Amino acid sequence: MSRNQKHPGSKDLSMPIIILVEPQMGENIGATARAMKNFNASELRIVTPRDGWPNKQARSVAVSAIDIIDDAKIYDSLEASIEDIDYLYATTVASRNINKDYVLSENLSQDCPAGLKVGIMFGRENCGLQNREITYAHKIININTGDFNSLNIAQSVIIICYELRQFGIRDKKK
Predict the structure, then answer these.
(1) Pairwise pLDDT comparison (33 vs 3), residue with the higher score
(2) How far apart are CA 64 and CA 7, in angstroms?
């Protein structure tokens, strides 16, 4: 299969909106933007970044994804960042005692609903999303890792974007 061919059975969906909840380091925001750019994800929302905004470190790590950094929307609350989202996923590597369906990252493109504005939440670098935040999601995405299951936020974003792109999900041009 060539680089830009769609996988058989793929859907024509836009890349979801990436939502970072209280990211702690500007460098990780920049790396997230760079990861997004590699897979044509273009909309980044940031909820109360710890080191403030705009952030010099985010810009320096973003390299050629400065447009994503410049266009990022900053929110004071998670609720405000998701109010226009039709379908929301939360990411976690840890099992949670929450009554939500799980979807593995490799099955996300088949699960992702067509025709809706989809968002994916990623939590803090040190502790992920809080249970209260996860309750806003329709489903939880689980990235299948080995025994050591602590991924950097940008690594998580790139895995999710890669999995979606593998099955033909493309960002519709604005």
Answers:
(1) 33
(2) 27
Q: Residue 4: pLDDT above 80?
A: no
pTM, full prediction = 0.88
Residue 115 belongs to domain spanning? 17-166
- Whole-angstrom Cα distance, residue 152 to residue 157? 9
Task: Report the alpha-carbon distance of residue 95 to residue 113 in Å, rounded.
Answer: 24
151 belongs to a structural domain: yes
Q: Token digits for 88?
A: 């929301």
Q: Does residue 21 fall inside a structural domain?
A: yes
Preceding peptide of 54 cis, ω within 30°: yes
Q: Is 111 exposed, middle or buried (0-12, 13-18, 19+ CB in 10 A)?
A: middle
Sheet holding 73-75, edge to edge: 73-75, 44-47, 17-21, 118-122, 87-92, 139-142, 101-104
Does residue 3 fall inside a structural domain?
no
52: CATH: 3.40.1280.10
How many domains, the chain? 1
